[in-house]
Design goal:
The complex is a heterodimer of chains A (422) and B (448). By secondary structure, chain A is mainly β. In chain A, the strands form ten sheets. In chain A, strands 1, 41, 42, 43 and 44 form a five-stranded antiparallel sheet that branches. In chain A, strands 2, 3, 4, 5 and 6 form a five-stranded antiparallel sheet that branches. In chain A, strands 23, 24, 25, 26 and 27 form a five-stranded antiparallel sheet that branches. Chain A starts with 11 loop residues before the first strand and ends with a strand. By secondary structure, chain B is mostly helical. Chain B folds into three domains: 131 residues, Fumarate Reductase Iron-sulfur Protein, Chain B, domain 2, CATH 1.10.1060; 153 residues, Rossmann fold, CATH 3.40.50; 116 residues, Rossmann fold (3-Layer(aba) Sandwich), CATH 3.40.50. Helix content of chain B is 52%, strand content 5%. In chain B, strand 3, helix 16 and strand 4 form a beta-alpha-beta unit. In chain B, helix 11 crosses helix 13. Chain B is globular, with a radius of gyration of 22 Å. Classes of the chains: A mainly beta (422), B mainly alpha (448). Chains A and B meet through strand 2, strand 7, strand 11 and helix 2 of A and helix 2, helix 10, helix 11 and helix 15 of B. The structure holds iron/sulfur cluster (3 copies).
Chain lengths: 422, 448
């Protein structure tokens, strides 16, 4: 997380932009995004025939482009978009385009503090990872599943290492894919490589791999586990000891393994999206204890409450004592904390956010076409036309709400800090 | 019964995946895999089916392959007899040549269309049994080359057609630009969070039928739908791994698909006109992952058009004048009962509708489905000649005036195109979306 202590945490509401008026200034205004500190709101705007720019707080960037897409604020409140300039693609950050140019760029990612911005890029049919304007030295036939280390200084991706033609099924089955970390390839090829994760010290990479059409396992820095499974899902490194854990399928059921060995006793109809508590001592995952019943399991024990449609977006509280997720039952969404679902049901619920002191949980929800923030089961504010995830102050005593109130011409984007002290 | 594989040798079709696939097989391996799949992966259902069949042959007339060839080996029960029954009877002790032939039967002589199970007094699901055979053959590495290549593409790119991540996004931007020549403020919103509709298509759309994406965008625009398309893998809803018996990959593909909609917080997935993809996301893939229903509701294009017309969100400027007939795709008719909605939409947009017979849930399959067309050129003739039944149906509809054939399914399109050509039917083939696009009022609904 970016350090938010120097943000404006004074209680009260600030109107930042008369966003409803923007559409009189441009041919069109695309969906807006808001900075984490709430001080800025921006959108891609069309300024002329085949001419696009970005409007931030009511003022357009001076430069225009053939196209701008995927506009997002970084955790440190910088505005980044993918832009095409005279047919060449690059990243523009706070109006400044990167120097490196490509035939296409996509899949931008930020480091945890926002200082690192990475993208996938293609030039002359070669594929690269790019870190803060610096592409890998070597390009590949194909990359997918770009992953960025927490510090934003490393990228890894699944790459094709051996060329083959369509229809060459037996060559494919010999293994034509591997992982490149900062452009450097692992020694070993696999049939497939999928999701990967960086260790917390940014030095190691673990990936889901298939070593034959039937054998799945996890490879760490190019070395597969000794054990293979019927399938696996995305691995993670323990923040505590650097070991690697992953959901694995054994005999038609799912469980959790560490360094190849089963560590949970229970097995499930499904188990995925496992997460560590910040101290690395606890593990939680989305599980289906039986077909069509979804919940969270913490250290091998599933919550009693289950959802019929789905459970997703699990998150640990900073102190590791609580877990929250979203759940859906009969098409209605809610948030569930330590197995207790909130009463309030909505048409959509976003990933819950814990306060730094672990006392509160809040989430953005949508009801009947309007948005609001619910904290600890209660609506905090009235409806918004749009709202972004809530942000707690570092001491956990305040909450920042970023939203658009009013419709059409009257729409205003505001940031408001509320006190949580009773 | 002698091993049928031997009888077939004279008419053996060469296929790299089948012929080279059996080279390394040993009888121990075959026995072990067959018994493992039968014991670990099939339950009471398979036993009941196999034990209940009384060989009455009532299912034969249901199958277009049998109706077209009139040979017992093409009857549904005949296909089971040549494959699974033999494996069960011999407790897995069958030869590599037998496996080759079993794979060919299950993958290229059955469309998994489930028509026969409607005519069986016991409801025996031959399609399911053929899927079990495909699963065994997958585990043995004996799958026809073309569809296996497609399964590889799915595994490496998460789409059917080896489309790279940047090519996908580029295609959407290109279609958006093309469409802007017609409707200047039209957008294909990429990766937009919180949209009502997440629109997904199958791999061949960006590759060969990009105009369908264009047309869908025009329809979304006119109807004022708050929609998005993903800029990440997971955009392709199709699934040949479901048909090669690679269930693990099927699950992985469906996870990527649903999770791209979940990541974008979309309220529902609307999918293009495809039958097998619907089966994969509405029935097989989601269930393999333990989701009883799709975690994000799925609406097939037919249902979506129906809704847009019912709610007055789409209006027709001028009805399509050429008389049309309609092919009911098995996966969305027998699989989901969308036939009346399809007729509602056809009547909304077309002046004159000629039914083909039989129709609705009794319709004959196109013979492309179930991955058969995806097995490629080696099996093309057998597939097309094996569907004289469809050609007869079409000749009859044509005799009663039909000039355009609507097929709201991609695979059906491929299969029917071949049938029209081979039998000289001279019908024009269209998707519902083609006709709606042609006849609708455009560009008034756009919401920014
Ligand atoms: S093609 Fe259809 S009717 Fe024929 S056996 Fe297969 S499922 Fe049955
Ligand atoms: S109709 Fe049913 S019982 Fe009769 S032969 Fe066919 S599958 Fe067997
Ligand atoms: S392609 Fe179409 S008709 Fe043919 S099996 Fe699929 S849904 Fe049925």
């Amino acid at each position: 997380m970016h350090d938010s202590s120097n943000w404006d945490w004074d209680i009260g509401k600030k109107q930042i932009a008369d966003i409803g008026k923007w559409k009189d200034m441009f041919e069109w205004v695309e969906e807006p995004c808001a900075s984490p500190d709430g001080e800025k709101v921006a959108a891609v705007v069309k300024t002329g025939d085949m001419e696009f720019s970005v409007c931030q707080n009511g003022a357009a960037w001076e430069n225009t482009f053939d196209k701008v897409w995927h506009l997002r604020f970084s955790p440190d409140n910088r505005l980044a978009g993918l832009v095409s300039d005279m047919g060449e693609w690059t990243v523009a950050v706070d109006e400044q385009a990167w120097e490196s140019r490509f035939e296409f760029v996509w899949n931008p990612q930020f480091s945890r503090d926002g200082s690192g911005i990475t993208v996938a890029a293609q030039k002359e049919r070669k594929y690269f990872g790019v870190i803060n304007d610096v592409p890998w030295e070597k390009g590949f036939f194909h990359i997918t599943n770009l992953a960025t280390s927490l510090d934003g200084k490393q990228t890894a991706a699944a790459i094709q290492t051996v060329p083959f033609s369509e229809g060459e099924i037996f060559k494919f089955q010999e293994g034509c894919y591997s992982v490149a970390v900062n452009g450097k390839t692992w020694d070993r090829n696999f049939i497939n490589v999928w999701d990967m994760a960086f260790s917390h010290d940014h030095e190691h990479v673990a990936a889901e791999v298939r070593t034959s059409l039937y054998d799945y396992t996890i490879a760490v820095d190019g070395v597969p586990w000794n054990e293979t499974f019927l399938s696996v899902w995305k691995p993670r490194f323990s923040p505590e000891d650097g070991s690697v854990t992953a959901p694995v399928r054994i005999g038609g059921k799912w469980t959790l393994a560490r360094n190849g060995k089963q560590i949970w006793n229970s097995s499930f109809a499904q188990l995925w999206h496992h997460i560590y508590s910040p101290d690395g001592k606890k593990l939680a995952a989305i599980v289906a204890p039986e077909f069509g019943k979804w919940t969270v399991a913490v250290d091998d024990i599933p919550w009693r409450h289950t959802f019929g449609d789905l459970a997703a977006d699990p998150v640990f509280s900073p102190d590791g004592k609580r877990v929250a997720c979203v759940g859906k039952e009969k098409e209605k969404w809610t948030v569930c904390v330590n197995g207790e679902p909130w009463n309030s049901m909505s048409d959509m619920a976003w990933k819950p956010v814990f306060s730094p002191d672990s006392k509160h949980v809040a989430a953005k929800v949508e009801k009947n076409g309007h948005y609001t923030i619910i904290m600890d089961g209660q609506a905090l504010k009235n409806d918004f036309e749009a709202v972004w995830d809530p942000v707690f102050s570092p001491d956990g005593e305040k909450i920042l709400i970023r939203g658009i109130e009013g419709k059409g011409d009257d729409a205003k984007y505001c940031r408001e800090v509320l006190s949580l002290k009773k | 019964m002698a091993e049928p594989a031997l009888k077939e040798e004279s008419r053996e079709i060469f296929d790299e995946g089948l012929n080279r696939g059996i080279e390394k097989l040993t009888s121990e391996k075959i026995e072990q895999v067959i018994n493992a799949v039968l014991e670990d992966e099939t339950g009471a259902r398979l036993k009941v089916y196999v034990d209940t069949c009384v060989h009455c042959g009532l299912c034969s007339e249901a199958c277009h392959f049998y109706v077209s060839f009139r040979e017992p080996r093409f009857s549904p029960a005949g296909k089971v007899k040549q494959t699974l029954w033999e494996m069960l009877k011999k407790k897995g002790k069958v030869s590599p040549e037998f496996i080759r032939r079993a794979s060919e039967i299950a993958s290229t002589e059955c469309n998994l269309c489930k028509r026969c199970s409607m005519y069986c007094p016991f409801g025996i699901d031959v399609a399911y049994l053929m899927l079990v055979v495909r699963r065994i053959c997958h585990k043995l590495g004996v799958t026809p080359q073309y569809i296996q290549d497609t399964a590889h593409s799915h595994s490496a790119t998460f789409n059917q057609m080896w489309v790279k991540d940047d090519e996908w996004i580029d295609t959407l931007m290109w279609q958006e630009e093309e469409a802007q020549d017609e409707i200047p403020d039209l957008r294909i919103p990429l990766d937009k969070e919180g949209a009502d509709v997440f629109y997904s298509v199958i791999g061949p759309e960006p590759k060969f039928r990009a105009q369908l994406i264009y047309q869908a965008a025009v329809i979304m625009d006119a109807a004022g739908i708050n929609w998005t398309m993903p800029a990440t893998p997971g955009w392709d809803n199709s699934d040949m791994c479901m048909y090669t018996g690679d269930n693990e990959m099927m699950g992985r593909l469906k996870k990527a698909h649903f999770e791209s909609a979940m990541r974008l917080k979309a309220k529902r997935i609307v999918m293009g006109e495809c039958g097998h993809a619907f089966r994969s996301i509405y029935d097989m893939g989601n269930r393999w992952l333990a989701w009883q229903m799709p975690p994000i509701p799925v609406t097939h294009a037919i249902e979506f058009y129906y809704e847009l017309f019912r709610e007055g969100k789409l209006k027709i400027a001028r009805k399509y004048e050429t008389p049309v007939t309609l092919h009911d795709p098995c996966n969305i008719v027998r699989g989901r009962g969308l036939h009346e909605m399809a007729r509602y939409v056809v009547n909304e947009v077309c002046e004159e509708f000629v039914e083909m017979h039989p129709n609705r849930e009794h319709n004959f399959c196109c013979s492309a489905g179930g991955g058969v067309i995806n097995c490629g050129p080696p099996f093309r003739n057998k597939r097309v000649e094996g569907n004289k039944a469809k050609a007869d149906q079409l000749f009859d509809a044509k005799a009663r005036g039909a000039k355009t054939l609507i097929a709201p399914c991609h695979n059906c399109h491929g299969g029917l195109e071949d049938i029209i050509h081979h039998y000289g039917l001279g019908l024009e083939l269209k998707f519902l979306g083609d006709i709606i696009y042609e006849c609708m009022e455009k560009g008034q609904g756009s919401e920014m």
